[in-house]
Automatic annotation (TrEMBL):
InterPro entries: CvfB_fam, CvfB_S1_2nd, CvfB_S1_st, CvfB_WH, NA-bd_OB-fold, S1_domain, WH-like_DNA-bd_sf, WH_DNA-bd_sf. It comes from the Bacteria. This is RNA-binding protein. PROSITE patterns: S1 (PS50126). Belongs to the CvfB family. It comes from Cohnella kolymensis. Residues 159-224 form the S1 motif domain. It holds the Pfam family S1_2.
Length: 311
């Protein structure tokens, strides 16, 4: 008998030993036994001689223990688990449905991108594995892990807004699982950095617009609205920003670098220029060198000598 953490086994109740619980094994012969504590016998009272199905885990003293509780995943399986806690030395503790938590080690996360690490309440797609001592651990799910569960996104999703979760972060964007609803577990997607307003965290739930349904059934996504709608919203943001500034002017224009625009407004340079072009066409703003001014502003914009800087 292999008493291995993370598995479900059907075992026979050999005896009850107070004040501990029931000892389980494969039969009446001597062999490996595992304790089912009283506190883990939820919903029923086992009887000596009957067979029960239990889940095995390590208790606080590293002993293999049985429970009648049903976990959200077993060894080798994928599931979406909520982040319950974080320890700076060990990693993230995930709720797995048995009153104990599953550890996702820190090495599973990009060390140079702490800004995309999960927060409490985020939901991570993980696969259960074991460490060298046989203890249960989690690892972040990879594309191949999703393959048996996902479906090809229908063409009708194009330009629709869908909800999903960030599953992994790459150099120029994030991989996602888009919620499938009645269609099933979900479809795989990707959001490029240029299509984000701010960085998305691993495990973060988001709402995004499908910009393309690819031939392989995956989708490209953007958290930004369609260009025309986005242009109006972005223009309104820039206008409000300028109205709050002294002299109705800002040290940003078509000549400002893409990095400075992204850092200050969360916009790509092309989106910034579209919004600025709309305001100029409507006669609301004008550009002078590296500055943009409200046309209606009574005070002239101050020069960059006044200490104002791009930030």
């Amino acid at each position: 008998m292999n008493l291995s953490a993370g598995h479900l086994l059907k075992l026979r109740v050999l005896r009850e030993t107070s004040p501990y619980g029931w000892f389980l094994g494969e039969g009446d012969t001597e062999g490996q036994e595992v304790l089912l504590p009283y506190g883990e016998a939820v919903g029923t009272t086992p009887r000596v001689g009957e067979e029960v199905e239990v889940f095995l885990f390590h208790d606080d003293k590293e002993r293999i223990t049985a429970t009648l509780r049903r976990p959200k995943l077993l060894f080798g399986q994928l599931a979406r688990l909520e982040v319950a806690d974080f320890h700076p030395r060990f990693g993230y503790f995930l709720e797995m449905g048995i009153g104990r938590q599953l550890l996702l080690p820190l090495k599973e996360l990009p060390p140079e991108r702490r800004d995309v690490w999960p927060q409490n309440g985020d939901e991570l797609h993980v696969v259960m594995r074991q460490d060298k001592e046989g203890r249960m651990l989690a690892r972040l799910a990879k594309i191949d892990d999703f393959a048996p569960l996902i479906f090809r996104a229908p063409s009708g999703w194009n330009n629709e807004w869908r909800e999903g979760w960030v599953t992994d972060v790459f150099r120029d964007g994030v991989f996602t699982l888009v919620e499938g609803g009645v269609l099933g577990y979900g479809a795989l997607g990707y959001i490029h950095d240029a299509s984000m307003i701010h960085p998305l965290r691993i495990g973060q739930k988001f709402r995004a617009r499908v910009t393309q349904v690819r031939e392989d059934g995956r989708v490209s996504l953007s958290v930004r609205p369609a260009k025309e709608t986005g242009r109006v919203e972005d223009a309104d943001r820039l206008l409000a920003f300028m109205k709050e500034r002294p002299g109705g002017a800002m040290p940003y224009s078509d000549e400002t670098s893409a990095d400075d625009i992204k850092r200050r407004f969360g916009l790509s340079k092309s989106a910034f220029k579209r919004a600025l072009g709309k305001l100029m066409k409507e006669g609301l703003v004008t550009q002078k060198g590296t500055w943009t001014h409200l046309v209606s502003a009574e005070q002239p914009a101050q020069s960059s000598d006044n200490g104002d800087r791009v930030d």
